[in-house]
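Hi D.,

Good news: the full-assembly prediction came through. Inputs first.
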Amino acid sequence: MKEVAVIGIGMIDWGELWEKSLRTIAVEAALKCFADAGVDKVDTITIGCMSGGLFNNQEHLGSIVPDYLGQRFVPATRVESACASGGLAVRSAFLEVASGMAEYALAIGVEKMTDVDGGEATFALATAADQDYEAFHGITFPGLYAMMANAHMFKYGTTLEQLAQPSVKNHFNGSMNPHAQYPFKVSLEQVMNSTKVADPLRLLHCSPITDGAAAVLLAPVEKAKEMNKPYVVITGVGHASDTIALAQRQDLYSLKAVEVAAQRALKMSGKTIKDVDFAEVHDCFSIAELMVMEAIGVVEPGQSGAAVMNGLTALDGDFPINPSGGLKSKGHPVGATGVAQVCEAVSQLRGESGKRQVKNAKTALTQNMGGSGASSVVHILEARS
Amino acid sequence: MKEVAVIGIGMIDWGELWEKSLRTIAVEAALKCFADAGVDKVDTITIGCMSGGLFNNQEHLGSIVPDYLGQRFVPATRVESACASGGLAVRSAFLEVASGMAEYALAIGVEKMTDVDGGEATFALATAADQDYEAFHGITFPGLYAMMANAHMFKYGTTLEQLAQPSVKNHFNGSMNPHAQYPFKVSLEQVMNSTKVADPLRLLHCSPITDGAAAVLLAPVEKAKEMNKPYVVITGVGHASDTIALAQRQDLYSLKAVEVAAQRALKMSGKTIKDVDFAEVHDCFSIAELMVMEAIGVVEPGQSGAAVMNGLTALDGDFPINPSGGLKSKGHPVGATGVAQVCEAVSQLRGESGKRQVKNAKTALTQNMGGSGASSVVHILEARS
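Then the structure:
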């Protein structure tokens, strides 16, 4: 298997981009990535998108993206694993390069969620849950994650303050991210007093509906060396599934697919979580960030709430999480999120993250997940010079 | 890059399967494949499905399929390139094995199209076209392929008889396929007098709406050798895109993405089309089969109509096409079609196709495409013993 480097990243400003179309934002992110890498022709493209069909009446991005990116005839593969589609696009591009099928493999993540109204968006997102046994009966994702939050609080005594703290931290970090949809700070009181969505989750525990795209360019490590500047290598790739329906799990307070995916990625890279300097994780709801901390091994099960209150995961803590602002502040265009996590990790590992730079960042972990943790993709990235 | 073999195939009977669900048919095809291979645990799964979202309100098959197949925690990737999603699933599984990421890689193709009514199905399929410049204005696929048929007739003098003949041939072959949705013969007169759909295309020029699934199991060639029976190797993989909108093409009477994908696959396998014994191609409409014959090089441009009338592509001809019955007779559950093509190729190369067996079949080509030829995936398969 060939060693694979990230030689370019491209992020656009995320938000409610009503003046732009699905294809436009995908192409804009890709062009920024091309400019960063100094490359304008690729061998293959992977596209992470959860549901162009339900959000935009547009499937077949594997044709439309190369077409509008000036890459006609280039093979392109759209991949989907609900909100983990972006991480999966990076994994798929990794395989293109690792197998020798391609030299330059572009991974794009994209979702244009505001072409439909809020109810339709909630319906579209619910197709990531079990349609027959969950969504059909009326439950949507805030309700599913609320059950997980209640289970975590009941099992471990996690408090409402602890549940609110990831949002405070992530908005603080996101306030320094020019691409973020909501680049402002929020206080613990604001989070805890925001509108209730699904008890105990409130509005400021929940990631928003977002239009956005992100892109990364992968190539064999020899190509990265030729560029004569610091670069980043993907040394671990982990991917796992779990039961789609929450009711089928052994418990509701742990994320087994995340645990397995992280173990696989760390094993492949020959590292343990102690060797990792920071992480970008999937905080679709604040409870998700707490549960992911436990699943990837940053803390023992049940210790995430106390750890986040103690500042472990703050930008200047021992294990910063979501320096980008996370899904909560940066936004969550579902298919784009996993690619944007890798963009942030690379930006940090290159030391290019400005005010939100993590000090001495050499090794990063990105964790993306779909549904109620029913699939997860984890990458380990390392700085090289 | 590791050499990759097909060590198992699984087909279910296709049709209007109202008593079964999307997950059920995917799992049934996979279990048949497991039984064929003598394997019950895989390292990775790829799933070709065009639109679980629009047909079944169910995305995230990368969770639901391993869950219901007894493969919890196994990584699974759903891929989509409209009606080429199945071919893409095989290509993606190929990369898993070729890269060394997996030993046993299962590719499943599935689509459950009759959970919605005919109008909704036509709408869902039209999301494979350009939503902004084609579908939004009301055109759907029969109309797009009708324009291609008219262009081909105008350019080359292709006749209505020639346009009808692929349907006659494919229904003849399909009458011997127990898995086919419409396993009966039709006459040239029946095709030419069937209900008009979009001039010059009539009902019996068009592939049907189908529920179906198919699966293939890939592994390194060493694993196939250990099974001590004849096996099949994938020696060529080609994949290409073209403009999504028909209006952007240089002409309407050729399929450039198919041409490029076929050239790539043949080059990778070190063969020319003259080395290929038969093909399974994407006859979503009868004009498509004629245009594909020209694109993959079976005949010169403009010669496909005469060739099909002369019996070149009949089961006992010099270059049999669609011994399975093709999309026309076997059915076209869009995400499953590309995987089923590989199932048929393997069955033929193993000499297991009964009454519809192609004589002395040693090398096969499968060609799957999305939209109006806006993406295509081609595989070259060879028998080994």
